[in-house]
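The data layer described in this paper is built around a simple, fixed record for each protein. Because each token names a local backbone shape, the row as a whole describes the fold. We quote a single record here, exactly as it is kept in our systems:

***
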Amino acid sequence: MKILFESIVWAEIQTIIQWSKTKKNEASFLGTGQIVSGNIVIDKIFIPKQEVSTASADLSEEGLAELFESLPKEDRNRILFWGHTHPGSTTPSGTDIATLKELKANNNIYIMAIFAAGATTYAKVFVRTQGLELEFTPEIDCIYSTRITNLIKENITEKKYAHTVGTGFYQNGNFNHQYEKGYMPYSTEYTPTVNQSYIKPSAHANAKVINPFENYTNKRKAKATRG
């Protein structure tokens, strides 16, 4: 099982880490997550009110209650992550262990992670099942935004060209495309050399190349023959 942080969440955590490094104080945050293909994806983080110092980030009951009240209903039961920063190493303290015990009391799955600038992230996953509590160290990784990925799948489709071809040539330092109905488009994987005036067509039985300079070239040949 891996702990996967969505890219925007990972960026937000890096912001907290840099703040902690600059201020030389700890900072705590909670996160919502879901199990996807056997891994836990952390998709949002929240910062409750707290008092911090170099050695602690004290979460008050009032601050936690206020945070839970402000969350959408669908997120209240999805909080399974507690992260916090250290200004130095990521070794958990006695206070960290005590705080973790309180936070994971009512969860079947809970994750703790400690972050620090320039240090290896410390993470533990706690799973409660059939009266047993299992603890293990997970791999950590970052993934693209699930929300944006889903929006892309729902709203973006690739344009399909039906039997169309085009020519392309260099003009004023830019490569211009011309398309003619009835032929396949040129392959974008082919890069013309300086001496080529058009792009190689896609592999297609009926594809043909339309050279925009063909008439001009033929006229020069004819003129040279007459001369």
User: Anything to note?
Assistant: Residues 179-210 have pLDDT under 50 and may be disordered.
